[in-house]
Specification:
heterodimer; A: about 110 residues; mainly beta; seven-stranded mixed beta sheet; globular; B: about 110 residues; six-stranded mixed beta sheet; about 0% helix
């Protein structure tokens, strides 16, 4: 299957600052990628669908001006959490859509906002 | 949109016993149903999946069944081992957007 990397694997930032998370497809042309958020002891919730070369589609309740997604190439999608607050602390996971509609998961990024 | 319900939320079994986790979905257009195992602090790992044109799929100790009429699907783990202990998530996907909707998860504990 496809190999997906995320950077950083963990990050601690101060409240009010912005954090950028990178999601890279190492061996697959990722036309479509997804961003999920997982709070402790909870399930994965889809935040947005990221399509290469076009604007992301955000799920209901997800602020597009707070969670900026850029998917400018077939190998890279980025999620920027702007003006982060403690309630944004979570595990952020990207996936890429494979040819048979399976999703390949990145290793996740643990964000802690102090 | 799609809604996936998963039961039970916790499941404790003795080593060697079988474990069954059940999920229901709401959108009749869903046609892809994966199951994931997630260990603490790690990404979910696909353990088995089934598509709507198949009623059952098996891979060694793991099997999944799908009843499209009733809109439910189940994960069966036989001869459980302590290393099977983890959180298991079901998910459903369908239509043109391919996005996954996850169940709330089941914490499986296999006692030695």
């Amino acid at each position: 299957g496809a190999v997906v990397s995320q950077h950083p694997s963990w990050v601690i930032c101060k409240s009010g600052t912005s954090v950028k998370i990178e999601c890279r497809s190492l061996d697959f042309q990722a036309t479509t990628m997804f961003w999920y958020r997982q709070f402790p002891k909870q399930s994965l919730m889809l935040m947005a669908t990221s399509n290469e070369g076009s604007k992301a589609t955000y799920e209901q309740g997800v602020e597009k001006d707070k969670f900026l997604i850029n998917h400018a190439s077939l190998t890279l999608s980025t999620l920027t959490v702007t003006s982060a607050h403690p309630e944004d602390s979570s595990f952020y996971i990207c996936t890429l859509l494979g040819g048979a509609r399976e999703q390949y998961f990145g290793p996740g990024t643990r964000l802690t906002v102090t | 949109g799609e809604n996936v319900e998963q039961h039970p939320s916790t499941l404790s079994v003795q080593e060697g016993d079988s474990a069954v986790i059940k999920c229901t979905y709401s959108d009749s257009a869903s046609n892809y149903f994966p199951w994931y195992k997630q260990e603490l602090g790690k990404r979910p790992q696909l353990i088995i999946d089934i598509r709507s044109n198949v009623g059952e799929k098996k891979d060694q100790r793991i099997a999944v069944t799908l009843n499209k009429t009733a809109k439910h699907f189940s994960l069966h783990i036989t001869e459980t081992q302590p290393e099977d202990s983890a959180v298991y998530f079901c998910a459903a996907s369908g239509g043109s957007n391919y996005k996954l909707t996850f169940g709330k998860g089941t914490l499986l504990t296999v006692n030695p």
